4-deoxy-L-threo-5-hexosulose-uronate ketol-isomerase
Amino acid sequence: MSHTNYEVRYAIGPDETRQAGTEKLRSEFLIEKLFEADQINLVYSHYDRYIAGGTFPASKALALETIDPLKSENFLDRREIGIINVGGEGKIWVDGVAYDLNYKEALYIGSGTKDVVFESKDLSSPAKFYINSAPAHQSYPTKKVTREKANILNLGTPETANARTVNQMIVSGIVDTCQLQMGMTELKSGSVWNTMPAHVHDRRMEVYFYIEVPKDQSVCHFMGPTDETRHIWMQNEQAVISAPWSIHSGAGTSNYTFIWGMAGENLDYGDMDVCDINQLK
């Protein structure tokens, strides 16, 4: 019996989104349940054919299985994948080679890989592997990225409630990829705003995955064109899809961490169109 669940989300544009109510927005863009015990949950988005999901080996190892939309024998026949562990100590087997992956460590696996298996080191504190995947036109080597190997940016200020540390992990200059990029932004105590000033990048899409949201707290994620924004309230360990035409920003009722992943036409991290804060509507 398969341990893999998936759903397909079709791309919609700003005109359709403008007419959407709360439930429609949530069903199109919010990914509510990423982690279920001994399951792999995936969402296949038609924005840049991006896949976001989670695998939770709570009592046994879980192999990465292909899904029907890929029309391929193996999941990574024509894809690359990035993985960040947000749980207990784990191990990932890549074509028989083991990579230890601890909390907030990342692993990139290139296309052409046949077998990927997720495993927890201690079942009393199982790993939770958050995964992003994008189509790939060539194969690059598997590479682990620890916090120490990340490119670290300190942005924002306490005065504007957006002091944050950006950990660029699977990005050009650290890992060779076809189009996938991933990293992690940690809000400092007392700061709540992420990705502010807001921006869009019409040449790539993005997914935000919110973690370390304290119990009984929430994050309000903002989306939509700069002149007609919408919001989605989110809880811990939920993700949200950001279309290329949409901003992607959030404010929490406490500080938190989020993992960002993106794919599209280029690998230029600074490729974006910034909107002045007082121009948002």
Summary: DSSP finds two helices and 24 strands in the chain. Residues 4-13+32-146 form a domain with the Jelly Rolls fold (CATH 2.60.120.520). The chain has two domains: 4-13+32-146, 148-279.
